[in-house]
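Severity: low
Component: inverse-folding endpoint
Summary: output formatting inconsistent between runs
Steps to reproduce: submit the following structure tokens with default settings.
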């Protein structure tokens, strides 16, 4: 293996910067969604209504609410 080629690969590996995810495939995983679900639950909204208003699945709402119960 060429040593010059190896050095370039090492330099590239060391200079890779981290990226921030800006687009989520599941809307329920977006930042702040957990807080919205909790707020709606506290205000008396049902699980189905919360899912419909926020545009996420019922299972996602239930998953977030189960996290609250277990903590």
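Observed output (run 2 of 3):
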């Amino acid at each position: 293996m060429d040593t010059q080629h190896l050095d370039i690969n090492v330099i590239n590996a060391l200079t890779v910067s981290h990226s921030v995810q800006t687009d989520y495939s599941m809307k329920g995983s977006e930042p702040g969604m957990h807080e919205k679900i909790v707020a709606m639950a506290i205000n008396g909204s049902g699980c189905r209504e919360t899912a419909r208003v926020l545009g996420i699945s019922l299972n996602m709402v239930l998953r977030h609410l189960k996290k609250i119960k277990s903590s």
